[in-house]
From TrEMBL:
It comes from the Bacteria. The lineage of its organism: Bacteria, Pseudomonadati, Bacteroidota, Flavobacteriia, Flavobacteriales. Residues 14-30 form the Prokaryotic-type class I peptide chain release factors domain. Signal peptide: none annotated. Residues 111-124 have a biased composition (Basic and acidic residues). Residues 1-21, 97-130 are annotated as: Disordered. It comes from Chryseobacterium arthrosphaerae. One of its GO terms (biological process) is rescue of stalled ribosome. This is Alternative ribosome rescue aminoacyl-tRNA hydrolase ArfB. Its EC number is 3.1.1.29. Residues 10-21 have a biased composition (Polar residues). InterPro entries: Pep_chain_release_fac_I.
Length: 130
């Protein structure tokens, strides 16, 4: 993934939330940006798959972006952002297997009917008779 990380660009910003004076003066939040269309790391089919699966995370200019502000240091947030974007792209590239329809076997059908009959008999025995 060394080549992939060269295609990433970064922006820093001030983190939100608790943290005292450090939050107000230090830009520790890191936003990682990746232009999907111009990537040389993936072929056209993979790019289309990524764009389709991650269309909600890709903006109008074609950038996939993520903001990380988990840590108090910019370097740790940058590393975490790289990990997250690689993980997200890898998940997007997974093609799920097609489900093949199967029918229940005769034994399974019989077992189901037997359990239904057993329950029915149990409830029948509970009924009040004169």
């Amino acid at each position: 993934m060394k080549n992939f990380s060269k295609e990433l660009s970064f922006k820093t910003s001030r983190s939100s939330g608790a943290g005292g004076q450090n939050v107000n003066k230090v830009e520790t939040a890191v936003t990682v940006l990746w232009k999907v269309d111009v990537s040389e790391f993936f072929n056209e089919d993979e790019k289309i798959l990524i764009q389709n699966k991650l269309k909600n995370r890709i903006n109008a200019e074609g950038y996939l972006f993520m903001t990380v502000s988990e840590s108090r240091t910019q370097l740790m947030n940058k590393n975490k952002a790289i990990e997250k974007i690689i993980e997200t792209v890898n998940k997007a590239l997974i093609i799920p297997k097609k489900r093949t329809a199967t029918k229940p076997s005769k034994a399974q059908k019989q077992k189901r009917l037997d359990s239904k009959k057993k329950l029915s008999d149990k409830k029948e025995n509970r009924r009040f008779r004169f």
